Amino acid sequence: MKNLVKRVYVRKKDRFDYKSKEVKKEIENLLKIKLEKLNIYNRYDLEISDENLDKAINNVLSERNLDYVYAKDEAKKLEDSFESALAVEYLPGQFDQRRKGVLDTLDLILDEKTDCKTATVYEFSKLSENDLKKIENYLVNPVDSHKIDLKEMPESLDTKREKNLENEIYDGFINYSDKEISDFVKDHDLAMDNNDLKMVRDYFKKENRNPNETEIKILDTYWSDHCRHTTFNTSLDIDIKAKTVLDEAIKNSFEKYLKMRDELDIKKPINLMSFGTILSKYMRSKNDFDDLEVSSEINACSVYVKVRVEKDGKENLEDYLLMFKNETHNHPTEIEPFGGASTCLGGAIRDPLSGRSYVYQAMRITGAGNILEDVDKTMEGKLPQRKISKLAAKGYSSYGNQIGLATGFVKEIFHEGYKAKRMECGAVIAAAPKENVKRLTPKKDDIVLLIGGRTGRDGIGGATGSSKSHKLTSIITESAQVQKGNAPEERKLQRLFRRSEVSKLIKKCNDFGAGGVSVAIGELYDGIDIDLSKVKLKYEGLKPSEIAISESQERMAVLIDKNDREEFEKYCREENVETALVGVVTDTNRMRMFYEDKKIADISYDFINTNGANRNAKVHFVSEEVPKYLTEKSDNPKYFYEKIKDLNVISQRNLIEIFDSTIGQNTVLQPLGGKKQVNPSQAMVAKIPVNEGKSKTASIMSYGFDPYLSEKSQYLGGYYAVIESIAKLVSVGSDLEKIRLSFQEFYEKMDNEKSWSKPLKSLLGAFEVTNFFKMPPIGGKDSMSGSFEDLNVPPTLISFATTTEDIENIKSNDLKGKGKIGLIRAKYNSDMTIDLDHFKNLLEKLIKAMRDGKIISTIALDNKGILANIYEQALGNSNFTLDFDNLYTPMFGSFVVEYVEDLDFVEKIGEFSKDLIVNEEKLDGEKLEKSYLHELDQIFAPKEEIPYEKIDQKEMKVSLKSKKPVDKVKVSILAVTGTNCEWDTKKAFEKYGAEVEINLFRNLDKKAIEESIENLSKSIKSSQIFAIPGGFSMADEPDGSGKFLANIIRNKKIKDAIEYMLDENDGLIIGICNGFQTLIKTGLLPYGKIKEIEEDDPSLTYNTNDRHISTIVDTKVLNNQSPWTSGLDLDVTYKIPISHGEGRFIVNEEKYKDLLENGQIFSVYEINPNGSDYNIEGILSKDGKILGRMGHVERLDSDLYKNIYDKKEQKIFENAINYFKK
């Protein structure tokens, strides 16, 4: 008999309900609606038996010590009591991470098949219909969610979807008139234009048949601007008539470009793309580009590098591929900020990941309007700027934090033009041993496997949608284009591809970015058969055309030899990755799609690869004057009180801290450094990760771009974007060897002759500098739809610069207060370009002085002006005295340095001092600091700053030597879907000689769960130490961290194994972050045994600022008398990375006294960031054998965090190993 649907409401107890408080404050402040009450509930409709409902409630849906629960009849009574309410759920087809978390965890603990539907319900005090509608409009984004009937109760959750083979044939299409072609384009909202569709008509006329829906959508996707760069490949008629001195510079650059074309004998028409690619072609023709990897498969910029690797005390050079990629998701983020931004990063990751490289660091550059403006000033058809900004930051950070990708640099750029369309740009850097990457030509009968996530309606039309301008209706009509990312699923692919035995089996690979199956598989080889019926779906009912073009995330198309299938699928099962054989290579030169035996599409690659009709445009060159923006000067220090409040000057600390910057044990420079961690790094730097040994080589990435310069002069905007990106690399220690670039272009729709002039001039400016330095752009991404009504984005060309450097040469930008303040001044020409020969000479002198230790800090000057640049790098370290006549005008190409020896190319302009004095005017440092650090607090909540109050606890008296010593200590690490710190934890133990086994818990089906439980129990029993590392198990769903892990621990076999290890092996347990949450939720902490959790037990819950916090905290150890903590210094400050959203330790007074009595408090925050009771960071079990903490001590190592000072090693891993030594 089928189970009836049961309804359950869960909400946080008042003390922990920070989400409701935050939303209430937002509504009252922004909508001006006074609320007496606001409670937020998670609602679950479950198809489950009565006997299993309690298990689901107590083990999955709620926690006794944190939540109120209302089930069945109580749920109905609750609904009846609401005075005003709003119930919201995702639109059909949108990925629901909470639902997945519920079902995956229920699968772990129940034998019956269950189903679930989730919603969020807002309960208000009595509201007018008008106020309730205002709140609905603010809270509900129609792109991904909708309001539902509060009390409607489904009888069943079975949607009864069946196969759908609908594939309309467009009868009469091959005989359409030009008018009918035009109408077809409009009626079907195609991205292609009339001329493209005429080509399609003529092609199918030759095929002697009419096309079907799938074929039209495949071609529309393949030929979209997103996929084929229509705008950048448009043939241009260019005539530059110089009227000004700046025009002469532009014309001169164009003539250099033409001369290079002549040398290369290029006959193709000029297009925008050629300005970015010509230097690379030129250098290759001169055999001056031996580090570039050349392959038809490359999805990211890829260069050969040498990595210094230290093993067993010896250093060797190893061959690696370094890959980097930038990506925008402007349109998706504009209409659905969380999903658009999260999949921006997901898409950027998958490009180099498909190249079999490991992605280890990310950069985020975004563009927004005024996020402080009132919500009622929001343009019609738009979301409020503050909402876009907050949700986009949450989306991007959530994805990166979950997948385990360190974000090394975050910058939001503010310009009113980005109200036309938000800029959401991500850049990533990746690496792989050269020997792991095979680029092989496919042959007939090779097979294509689709691996990873399943396919749904989310992301249908993403490629074509991103190629269109934003319209008033976009926010309502384009929901299917926006995907919901599933970061834990992509983490599985990262693990899989990092295995060399897997990587070496792959001939070619493509990620499911724009175009889905049709493009990802179609691009692998010109001759392929695809069986759409084999594509695994999230749900039945998708039409063939939907399966063909859905861009559902976290999938890869892998082309391998058919004889390698069994081995490859075995590795996939080991990594918990689903596979399906969906394609076969043929010699037909056609893309053919089938659904079982029915042919769905059949198109010649000769036709697909035409990329549609040729595009031609005439460029009306728009003359440029030298902008006053670069020439006007001011020496008035009092103006700094206003300048410091500029959105582009103020600190973005609270925004930056949302992004995990330390995961991976590779970060060399923190995004914020200095004594108070408020000084922003000008570039991101990370060790290139190696599989064995210790890396001594770092990658560096920077960016350059100023929208205010670019809107006034596109030529100088592109020119100085490159200059700035190079200067920032040098500022942190790079030399000039083998700097490589990638551009991101974002412009208005090219709908008139003058508009073409903007990207042309930007690219010519960039070409002038790259040509001089022979630093070619080897990749890029263009987005040419930045228009909304009459508003356009500022002309945007971002230069991303990348290189590698020895770690010893890396220097931080923060001013140390130990030398003098000097200026290295670039020589500016009359057209406000710089003397590039002089600039290069200055760079070479600067690099030498930095290497010689004569310059200890360097700041590449940017658009903030010299005073702001100095201030942001001195704050918290030292005040200064400055004497200079140009405080606010950008001086791109110049540097401020802190020098300890006089140098002939450095002009002294200041010194460090007790007070802040500028041009003999003493400034109010406290007032400036408040404006600089706290202007954005209303958008991105600050962390707590609660000082530690002394705690006296009793000494713990336990044995510091094991009764069961061993020669080799074995460590068992548990990793599940969402774990992301297993490698860092493994390295931390191996450093001290442990033998470490990572046990990946697989849950694709019941058999995999049973095998995983069996394997894990055996591993634990044979180990001395059991470790549960950090991460986001099941994406911290449903509504809380560690629930999936806790239910593994409660399994009888695992429980017995843990008890055996603790008793028979005298074993130890550690849980960090997500692992600490697991130990708390199972009773292992503080009780030392697995038990049912009671209402008064300690817990870990959401940070009081209701956001993720990633920073390095000062901690103090209170216990140094346990196996883990023996010998730690009670009198020093230990700096430990944290990265969590649920790190607030909660304990009542009675249990707190028990902790004190037993000496169980291990560590406290000196300044509490998350609201933890008594500043507690970590605790121990009574016997000292189980340690749980939020701080990521496993992420500490030498050569890391160079801009964080006075770091001391906390030897808890060494202590644990020594505990078992004979």
Give an account of the 3D structure.
InterPro entries: Class_I_gatase-like, FGAM_synthase, PurL_linker, PurM-like_C_dom, PurM-like_C_sf, PurM-like_N_sf. It comes from Anaerococcus vaginalis ATCC 51170. Keywords: ATP-binding, Ligase, Magnesium, Metal-binding, Nucleotide-binding, Purine biosynthesis. This protein has 1222 residues and is of the alpha+beta class. It is 32% helix and 24% strand. The chain is built from 38 helices and 50 strands. Among the domains are: 3-145, no CATH class; 169-208, no CATH class; 299-607, Phosphoribosyl-aminoimidazole Synthetase, Chain A, domain 2 (Alpha-Beta Complex), CATH 3.90.650.10; 959-1217, Class I glutamine amidotransferase (GATase) domain (Rossmann fold), CATH 3.40.50. Helix 6 crosses helix 7 (194-207) and helix 10 packs across helix 27 (753-773). The strands form eleven sheets. A nine-stranded mixed β-sheet has the order 40-39-41-42-50-49-47-44-45, with helices on both faces. Helix 14 links the parallel strand 10 (358-368) and strand 11 (406-414). The longest helix is centred in the middle third of the chain and has 21 residues, at 753-773.
Q: Within the largest sheet, what's the order of strands?
A: 40-39-41-42-50-49-47-44-45
Structural class: alpha+beta
- Under the CATH scheme, the architecture of the domain at 299-607 is Alpha-Beta Complex
Tell me the fraction of residues in β-strands, as a range.
15-25%
Which stretches are low in confidence, meaning pLDDT under 50 for 5 or more residues running?
472-479
Count of strand segments: 50
Might you state the CATH topology name of the domain at 299-607? Answer: Phosphoribosyl-aminoimidazole Synthetase, Chain A, domain 2
Mean pLDDT: 95
Shape: globular
Radius of gyration: 30 Å
* CATH H level, superfamily name of the domain at 299-607: PurM-like C-terminal domain
* The top level CATH class name of the domain at 299-607: Alpha Beta
Protein name: Phosphoribosylformylglycinamidine synthase
Domain PurM-like C-terminal: 444-595
Keywords: ATP-binding, Ligase, Magnesium, Metal-binding, Nucleotide-binding, Purine biosynthesis
Enzyme class: ligase
